[in-house]
């Protein structure tokens, strides 16, 4: 089934639910007025529907391959990439100083959402570059900015991030890649990195790697790590790609999904690199890129959910199988199929609304400098990443189920969504790590940012009692339960928090979803049925999730290795 961009959802969420009007009212983003927003969304949708979506199956059937040291990309990907770059979509939120559009991250998030639905394997390339641009804008020298950022924005060059090593996955501090000063302001980078997304291609003139490595005087752990720009080709005096750097793609991984996106083992053999930011402060600089990517990956989950839902809905509306309660109609009239489609739609809407709410907070923090907005964005980032990607996996799973036996057949395409979505809960920090970040670092303020958001949810639910008394009371009760649980959480020792981190994050997402669905129903009575489905059927899960959180670590660690082996 052809992909159709959910433009009505984007417009509705921006106008009525996530508070984008506040972003457009700031001086920094004054150009983000309705006509500009409409033009951006419409043009991006046209590209995604007509150019990128046809590439999705091709990328799955004909994966990227390594041929004599060169990565050959899937059929049509070069043309798809040129469509992305010619439209200026890589630099949509980058600074105009270097050729970017300077538009809000919220709009970039909408565009990336559409690109991910159309062809997630290809969308990963500009997503990595966008993160690199932001890291360079915040941490690079003026010379590096002037040389690299315009070429990254134009798409002439593309960017990657290199963190992971075979012995240093989530524990980045265990990395062994070395950086030796060469005495001329550059460094010799030596080591091997794994899981490098879009480490190479055959359609850009250069690939720019941001690499974490340790200087000779770098201490142990993450505090001793520095960040370096290590290009595939070293720029000459004119800024054009010059001699080949001392790095290579060793191999490409054979993956469950995302076949069109080359994931490489990279070897750096004394490669020339330039320091980005201060020595031994590499993790802080890389986190600028990672936080951008975490929201982006959360929205990748939403992207897959949208595409899987569209296909399942079309199949269910066409497939006839047995008598239904409504007569001889299609399987969409069977109660369980309707339930699955309702859950797919409701979860996708909630996850998209949470992701866009996070993007709005990022934009407001940047435009106003208000610490409260920055705290809101920090709080929402792990929730948006984890819930968005969980939603992508769960909705894709339901999509296969709606198709029945045909969902298990590759030719329908339903299985590809499940395979492509699976890694999103793992990369850019597993969802368990996101949850531990939420209950740890994000609660270092004593829960102030969380309580402020919960208070807003309660206030909105209270204000809705006259219009939607049954739904508003359910949301208020859930928010109050979340408040009580958060008070318990912030008083827990760290290991008890971590043991309940995943259910706590999920419960927080459930309550946020109810709040956002309620706001949608208040703005448009036509959306009340979906809000009722979510609030009545899905929101009640928060109670069981918070009960798990309160259990702490004792029952987890009672399952000793010996007990687990019985």
Brief characterization of the structure:
The chain has about 575 residues and is α+β, with helices and mostly antiparallel strands.
CATH topology of the domain at 7-152: Butyryl-Coa Dehydrogenase, subunit A, domain 1
Helical element count? 20
> What Rg, in angstroms, do the CA atoms define?
24 Å
The percent range for strand residues is 5-15%
CATH architecture title of the domain at 7-152: Orthogonal Bundle
- Summarize the amount of helix as a percent range: 55-70%
Shape: globular
Q: What is the fourth-level CATH superfamily of the domain at 7-152?
A: Acyl-CoA dehydrogenase/oxidase, N-terminal domain
Structural class: alpha+beta
Overall mean pLDDT stands at 96
Distance between the termini: 48 Å
- Please give the CATH class of the domain at 7-152: Mainly Alpha
Number of strands: 11
* Largest sheet composition: 7 strands, mixed
Ranges where pLDDT stays below 50 over 5 or more residues in a row are none
Give the SSE map.
Elements: H1 7-16, H2 20-24, H3 34-52, H4 55-61, E1 65-67, E2 70-72, H5 77-86, H6 105-139, H7 142-154, E3 157-162, E4 178-181, E5 187-197, E6 206-214, E7 225-231, E8 233-235, E9 241-244, E10 247-252, E11 263-276, H8 282-318, H9 335-368, H10 371-403, H11 414-422, H12 431-439, H13 448-463, H14 469-490, H15 494-499, H16 501-523, H17 528-538, H18 541-550, H19 554-557, H20 561-565
Parallel strand pairs: 3-6
Antiparallel strand pairs: 1-2, 4-5, 5-11, 6-7, 7-11, 8-9, 10-11
Helix pairs in contact: 3-6, 4-6, 6-7, 6-8, 6-9, 8-9, 8-10, 8-11, 9-10, 9-16, 9-17, 10-11, 10-12, 10-16, 12-16, 13-14, 14-16, 14-18, 16-17, 16-18
């Amino acid at each position: 089934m052809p992909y159709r961009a959910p433009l009505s959802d984007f417009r509705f969420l921006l106008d009525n639910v996530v508070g984008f009007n506040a972003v457009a009212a700031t001086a920094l983003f004054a150009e983000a007025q309705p006509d500009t927003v409409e033009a951006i969304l419409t043009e991006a949708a046209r590209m995604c529907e007509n150019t990128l979506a046809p590439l999705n199956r091709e990328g799955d059937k004909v994966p990227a391959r390594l041929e004599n040291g060169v990565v050959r990309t899937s059929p049509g990907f070069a043309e798809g990439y040129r469509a992305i770059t010619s439209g200026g979509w890589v630099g949509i939120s980058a600074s105009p100083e270097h050729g970017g559009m300077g538009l809000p991250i919220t709009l970039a998030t909408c565009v990336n959402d559409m690109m991910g639905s159309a062809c997630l394997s290809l969308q990963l390339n500009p997503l990595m570059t966008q993160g690199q641009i932001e890291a360079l804008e915040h941490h690079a020298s003026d010379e590096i900015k002037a040389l690299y950022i315009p070429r990254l924005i134009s798409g002439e060059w593309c960017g990657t991030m290199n963190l992971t090593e075979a012995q240093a996955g989530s524990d980045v501090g265990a990395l062994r890649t070395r950086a030796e000063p060469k005495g001329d302001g550059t460094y010799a980078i030596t080591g091997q990195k794994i899981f490098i997304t879009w480490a190479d291609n055959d359609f850009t003139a250069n690939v720019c790697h941001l690499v974490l490595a340790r200087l000779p005087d770098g201490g142990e752990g993450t505090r001793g790590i520095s960040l370096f720009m290590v290009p595939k080709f070293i720029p000459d005096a004119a800024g054009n790609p010059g001699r080949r750097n001392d790095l290579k793609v060793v191999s490409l991984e054979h993956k469950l999904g995302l076949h069109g996106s080359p994931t490489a083992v990279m070897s750096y053999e004394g490669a020339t690199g330039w320091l980005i930011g201060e020595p031994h402060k590499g993790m802080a600089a890389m986190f600028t890129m990672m936080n951008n990517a975490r929201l982006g990956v959360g929205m990748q989950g939403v992207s897959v959910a949208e595409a899987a839902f569209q296909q399942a809905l079309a199949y269910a509306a066409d497939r006839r199988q047995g008598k239904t309660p409504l007569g001889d109609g299609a399987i969409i009239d069977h109660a369980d199929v309707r339930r699955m489609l309702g859950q797919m739609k409701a979860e996708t809407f909630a996850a998209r609304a949470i992701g866009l709410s996070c993007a709005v907070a990022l934009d407001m923090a940047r435009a106003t400098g208000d610490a409260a907005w920055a705290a809101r964005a920090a709080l929402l980032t792990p929730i948006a990443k984890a819930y968005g990607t969980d939603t992508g996996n769960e909705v894709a799973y339901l999509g296969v189920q709606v198709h029945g036996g045909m969902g298990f057949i590759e030719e329908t395409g339903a299985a590809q969504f499940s395979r492509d979505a699976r890694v999103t809960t793992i990369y850019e920090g597993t969802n368990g790590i996101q949850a531990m970040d939420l209950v740890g670092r994000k609660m270092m303020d004593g829960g102030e940012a969380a309580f402020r958001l919960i208070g807003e949810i309660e206030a909105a639910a209270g204000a809705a009692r006259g219009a939607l008394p049954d739904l508003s009371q359910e949301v208020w009760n859930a928010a109050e339960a979340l408040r009580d649980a958060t008070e318990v959480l912030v008083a827990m020792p760290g290991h008890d928090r971590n043991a309940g981190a995943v259910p706590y994050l999920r419960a927080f997402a459930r309550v946020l979803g109810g709040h956002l669905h309620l706001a949608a129903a208040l703005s448009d009575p036509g959306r009340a049925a979906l809000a009722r489905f979510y609030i009545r059927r899905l929101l009640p899960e928060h109670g069981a999730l918070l009960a798990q959180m309160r259990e702490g670590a004792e029952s987890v660690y009672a399952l000793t290795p010996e007990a687990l082996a019985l």
